[in-house]
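ok so I'm stuck.
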Amino acid sequence: MFATGNKSVVSPRRLLGRAGMVAGIAMLAAVSASAQTDTFQVTANVNAACTVAANDLAFGVYDPFSATPTDGSSTMDVLCTNTTPYDVGLDAGVGTGATVASRKMTSGANLLNYSLYQDSGHATVWGETVGTDTVSGTGTGTAQTVTVYGRIFALQNAVPGAYSDTVTVTVTF
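replied:
not stuck anymore, here's the structure
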């Protein structure tokens, strides 16, 4: 440093020495910093799945003297993963001697015959044999409503009482 009056001046040689030292430290920091990279996979499996929620079918009051059958309907919601093919089957119920063509509601030992259909015209009986008498669909990932049409046959010699049956819904996918 040179003193000139009240001011100090740094010599150029000393200034270059400090600048060189700072540059050298920066260079060392740049050389000693390094990085490594790698990758990893992210995976998931989506399995086909379905659920079903069925609502009760209540026919109301049956008139055994009427020549007109008593009709009713109900719905169920089928929820399957998107693009999953499915079949909805209905068993014969628990009434003694029941078949899918002629199901049996019971009141004690008494029976009341009925059937369940895939269509409102009551032409296609709904059963449980996939590819024969079930209802097919393809999942969309949202609930799909499926309607069940019921019919109590006319002119049955029914004994008064409260009749019921339990039908099992099976979704095959």
